[in-house]
Amino acid sequence: MKSAYTLTSRLRVFLKEPLGTLIKGTPQETMAKLKDLLNAEKPPAVISVGDVVSKNLHECGINPQLTIIDYLSLRDKIIPRQPPVDKTVYVQNPQGTITEQAVLAIKAALESGVHTHIVVEGEEDLLTLIAVVYAAKDSFIIYGQPYCGIVVVKASSEKKIQINEFLNEMKTSKS
After folding, report:
1. Which residues pair with 76 in a beta bridge?
2. What is the reported pLDDT for 175?
3. How far apart are CA 4 and CA 170, in angstroms?
4. Longest dimension (CA), the chain
5. Kind and range of the H or E element at 122?
6. What is the 3-class SS of 21-67, one letter each residue?
7. pLDDT mean over 70-84
8. What is the DSSP letter of 2?
9. Helix or strand or coil: residue 148?
10. What is the pLDDT of residues 141-169, one digit of tens each?
């Protein structure tokens, strides 16, 4: 398992802020607002990163094309619930890194168009960055903002450029 990217201390601070639109509220409130947003914008794909947000999406009838989870919420074990998916992929991705294995799994899942569930041994948070880069333009990448709500990142051209700049700073072997 080779790390392609490692989180820098500068980015660690920066990435604590939402990467997109923060929707505050309870799960019921955030899912209702998200449904309205999905109906208005009709993104080509929805991708979820995180156990709680993924569970909430599935429970309210939103089935992301790609779900990335690690069976942990705020570093505590949670009870695994297998959402309806066509394919499940397992990857290793230690905390504070993005492995080549995880990058390839996300890229393949998004290119396939198959409803995929990626289960991460380690931590999934930083994989949001990879999902933004490889998602179809204007797709929504959704992750939880602890104790606050959810964040919706629209994979616009500008957002992809911003995320690629982050990734360039994080590259493990810069050439």
Report:
1. 73
2. 44
3. 8
4. 47
5. strand 116-122
6. EEEECCHHHHHHHHHHHHHHHCCCCEEEECHHHHHHHHHCCCCCCEE
7. 64
8. -
9. coil
10. 999 998 899 999 999 999 999 999 999 99
Distance between CA 60 and CA 40 in Å, rounded? 17
Residue 67: strand pairing partners: 48, 117
How far apart (Å, rounded) are the C-alpha atoms in residues 162 and 86?
32
What does DSSP say about strands 46-49 and 21-24: parallel, antiparallel, or unpaired?
unpaired
Distance of CA 146 to the CA centre of its chain: 14
Partnered with residue 73 across adjacent β-strands are 76
Structural contact between residues 8 and 166, judged by C-beta atoms closer than 8 angstroms: no
Q: Which residue type sits at 77?
A: K
Confidence at residue 78, expressed as pLDDT on a 0 to 100 scale: 61
> Is residue 134 within a helix (H) or strand (E), and if so which, with residue range?
helix 127-134
Render pLDDT for 53-73 as a digit per residue (tens, 0 to 9).
999 999 999 999 999 998 876
Closest by CA position to 110, among listed 62, 65, 54: 65
